[in-house]
Amino acid sequence: MKPFLLVAADFIKTGGMDRANYALADYLARQGAEVHLVSHRIDIELQTYPNVVWHPVPKVANSNFLGEFFIDRVGQFWARQITQRGGRVLVNGGNCSWGDVNWVHYVHAAYQPESKVSTLQRAKIAVTHQYFCQAERRSLQQAQLIITNSERTRTDLVQHQLAPASKVRSIYYGIDPTLFYPAAPEEIRSLRQQLNLPLDCPIVVFIGALSDRRKGFDVLFEAWKRLCQTPAWKAQLFVIGRGAELPIWKQKLMDASLVDRIHFLGFRSDVPDLLRASDCLVAPTRYEAYGLGVHEALCCGIPAIVTETAGVAERYSSECRNLLLSEVTVIELVKKLLDWSNSQDHYQALIRSQITRKLRRETWDEMAKQMLDAIETPTSVLV
User: Fold this and answer.
1) 255 shares its domain with 268
2) CA-to-CA distance for 11 and 117, rounded, in angstroms?
3) pTM of the full structure
């Protein structure tokens, strides 16, 4: 097998693209390939493989913007070495300017981030966004093959003239079915006791960074505040994630007297347990190339309310599309949450019969095999 160089920020088991990058590296290593990784971090399990070579890159000031500059330079250095040996190089979006395989997890040109933290934060976001857009375009124009995580991402690349359709192949993310599965009632009760979650009310989960407004938590907060004014609404919301706007939301929580209805959990490594113990996931995202958190919830057999433009919405059968948001507004989200609340058993049964079984069969290894097949197939055949 040819040597491979993979260039990404992280190869770890948490986060969307990080988990996907880890899965590909792990699969290649288990196939016996010589695997070179250029990144800030890699999971300890990858370090145990004798055929995995890690080229660590410092993350200056813990900044993605500064870190990507060094990822690009170190990635290009090792790309030249691996290419000279007849190997293959896979980069992520604009993180490394190299013309081989590009795996796109997010399209910067498709969404302009916004933040309410401060004028300085907004200026920083504007500058970094422009840089990422330029790097993205430069890198994608060089690519021989582009792999995307959804048809939505593929469409974004073509519509923003970042790549011709003939170069792009969509391959969905996989899952670890041993971690994400529907729990029996006894396990749910046990998990809630272990996790110190309430036993006598529905639990709704939000997963996402609170660094800007992309994930739509501002809409969810206002919708939840409105729902809590109704005595019949008993559900509690648990927020998994952190970011620059977290202090703002904690203050808003106090001001709205919702400290017993919304709970901020911060970063969690036990997301599979939290999902299996929950009743619903909400993701009113303004832009989502895919949405691994939603995918994981569906594999746990719990309904997930998500924006219909998210890549993961492509996985919903026609019978389940009532859970999709047609617009990211408070009114629309309140309507969807009430609909779910009034028909919880119906939606759970529908998700488990229509989506859960299918998604749990599509493992990370299956994803990696599809990617290798695409890489080994001439681009002209992919049209």
Assistant:
1) yes
2) 30
3) 0.95
